[in-house]
Amino acid sequence: MRLDRIGVDESVAAVFPPGRLVDRLGDATDESGVDVTAVDGSPEGMADCDAVVTLEHHEAYLDLSWVHSIQAGVDRFPRDRLREAGVALTNSTGIHGDAVGETVAGFVLALARRIHEYAASQTANEWNRPDWDEAWTVAGERACVIGLGGLGRGIVGRLTGLGLDVDGVRRDPLPEPGVDRVYPTGDLREAVGDARFVVLAVPLTDATRGLVGRDELAAMDDDAYLINVARGGVVDQSALVAALRDDEIAGAALDVFETEPLPADSPLWDFEDVIVSPHCAAYTRDYYRHVATVLEESVRRVGDGEDPVNRVV
User: Fold this and answer.
1) 27, 148, 185, 298: which one has the fewest Cβ atoms less than 10 Å from its Cβ?
2) In this structure, which long-range contacts are made by residues 27-30, counting pairs with CB atoms below 8 Å and at least 24 apart in sequence?
3) Which residues does the UniProt record annotate as the domain D-isomer specific 2-hydroxyacid dehydrogenase catalytic (predicted)?
């Protein structure tokens, strides 16, 4: 793979300033002779690039040697077309566990301790205390984390630290530290049956699209909460709305949605026990530094004639 120039696409500005990554990578690649520059994803902007770091896909990327996604998920990218064009696709798996784990811990505590209600009351200048039996503590409750990759392991660590008992679901039910029981995907409904919190942390693939639908939601207890930090398409959103309206589950904390931004007329905005966040569970001021660390190792490997880190295609 030829690697003389890496572009940092302007789309990463949704997560961090592109210039921060350009400067960080530029300092790290001085010895390798690789140039790093900001680009706009257009054919003209990409003309001299061999690789790009990006949040989104552009058609001009099909003429490159390497595309790196700053996210762990690669569902935004046409993998078959990239493969046919001989373009390597890599992702940022492994850098999000801490941030997403802490976000999930925050959701869990907010729902149990009713913090989201206090925040809503504050905007209305209202002094509202919960009923005597409305708030509860999470220690001793059970969570089920669906997906035990980098995200899932970060979530497990935070939840066990809060005193929750944790089960897990993944394709290959091998034991996982901190997880009491690991279920195969085919036993998902059984796995969620006694969980107070069901946490989704799987990538969006053909196999996981619509993974949680009417039957899975019906298998959850009526005092359980769904937390989605995976992708919106993993959940049948209309089934979720119906389950919330019919009190089949207690509530949800959702960072991702079928349509983003979440439309203003979505009923999900209006449920008292639904927390909506704008697909930012992984955000941290160190995000660009974490991406740079992955890329620095990839540049070194490519220079040695090896594959870059986290190659997907």
Assistant:
1) 27
2) 28/292, 28/296, 28/299, 29/296, 29/299
3) 57-312
Region 214-241: mean pLDDT is 98
**231 among known catalytic residues:** yes
Whether the CB-CB separation of 294 and 310 falls below 8 Å is answered with yes
**Could you tell me the two tokens for 240?**
């979720």
Q: Is 132 found in the same domain as 17?
A: no
CATH number of the domain encompassing residue 213: 3.40.50.720
Could you give the number of structural domains in the chain? Answer: 2
**Pair type for strands 51-54 and 5-9:** parallel
Active site residue 141: no
Structure tokens at 66: 């390497």
Residues 288, 211, single domain; the answer is no
Catalytic residue among 176, 231, 248, 290: 231
List 84, 134, 260, 306, catalytic entry: 260
> Which domain does 246 fall in, by range?
97-276
What are phi and psi for residue 299, nearest 5 degrees? -60, -40
What span, in angstroms and rounded, lies between the C-alpha atoms of 72 and 222? 32
Give the separation between CA 254 and CA 273, rounded to whole angstroms. 11
In a shared domain, residues 51 and 142: no
Given the residues 24, 68, 114, 279, select the one marked as catalytic: 279
In a domain? residue 308: no
Q: Which one-letter amino acid corresponds to residue 19?
A: G
Mean pLDDT of the chain: 97
| pTM across the whole model | 0.96
